[in-house]
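Workshop exercise sheet. Pairs work together: one partner reads the sequence aloud, the other fills in the structure field after running the prediction. Swap roles for the next sheet.
Pair: D.N. / O.F.
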Amino acid sequence: MANFNMSLKKNEMPMQDPVLRGKNFDEVALGYTKEQAYSEALRCLNCKNPVCVKGCPVNIDIPGFITEIKNGNLNGAYAIISKTSSLPAICGRVCPQETQCEQKCVRGIKGEPVAIGRLERYVADNASVEISTLPEKNGHKVAVVGSGPSGLTYAGDLIKLGYDVTVFEAFHLEGGVLTYGIPEFRLPKRIVKSEVEKLERLGVKFERNTVVGKTVLIKELFEDGYEAVFVGSGAGLPNFMNIPGEALKGVYSANEFLTRSNLMKAYKDGSATPIMKGGKVVVVGGGNVAMDAARTALRLGAEKVTIVYRRSMNELPARKEEVENAIEEGIEFNLLTNPVEIIGYVNPSDPRDTKNGFVKQIKCVKMELSDPDENGRRRPVVIKGSEFTMDANVVIMAIGTSPNPLIKQTTKGLEVNRWGGIIVNDNGKTSLDGVYAGGDAVTGASTVISAMGAGKIAAKATHEYIQSKN
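Structure field:
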């Protein structure tokens, strides 16, 4: 039996047909078959000094779990992954492996790197996971604010060390951005639910519909006996461009649009959740959230979806895979373009016209990129006299989010930076004793895996902090 597969290319991921998938919310990527996973695992060279591990924010033993796939031992592969990752089925689907572990893979020097993310997903989806023994309790309890990727990782790491862990979630469902932000066709909600249930079986408790900073304050958590608090409340405050017309009906932040569709189930037939469907949709922005919003609008029945982005395709921050999927589905890209005004419908002869106050058009200008600055960044510059308008019924602003200010406003002494991110040291410790933070609440909108890495770092620091007091 061959030890290696020396193919220069990854095994292709089976996908839904682009024409069909643009009309449903079923998962686009279908996952490897057993044969494809084994063939791809054989491409791993099992390096003695695996630099791929250094590219993983949670330091998964990548050659170790891939070796178990080669051996046909999926439960063993899952056990290796779960030593450092609490959310393998999620990471295998949405992490940007191409800029992390796979970017370091030596197979990528000549050809394509090993499809680490696809193999992680295969293991998570197909291993038979059973929890036979619960961690022995150590008598200490910690609180977690938010059940997004950083909070779930923090909770998972500390429950395994014997802590009594309670997660306080503002919504009625756990998962944070995994639930309200990432669409069903990229990350099915059953996957998030399954990962949460695994943590519950380990003993993690979830308090839903609890807004820390309003329902309960951080100082009150300490008064209730929690010895440390981790703030993983995410970045749910949407940014806008502050251009005329943003208050018109039909203008959404991507946060609101995706929350209505995902968390509030507007994507389901017969849903009572209000959301604008059909017509011409313009999405402003070029990140993964913009791709999610555009592809969601298409599936909700949009006649035409256009992404407007002020730089070129080379600078587009979204994952290559997501951009390719969007293009295959028929979404148009209007690059080197920036909005300057959203124009509303007005019928002066009939103030009762139901179209009044809704979006009619969006006015834009064309851009060109300047010479690179000292950091190599090319700044978009307006081309004079380049104004033009596009018809639009819906405009979705996907230009980033900031941390919600509620916890800062209600937690005396908690230091934040000028844009609201909680200030932490290298161990995730905030300016307050016993309070840690990580993920988007610190960095602003970032990746799932970087948030998980922050949760791991803070969990380790919390353990050391509590043990040092006893």
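Discussion prompt: Residues 235 and 354 are 35 Å apart (CA to CA). What would you look at next?
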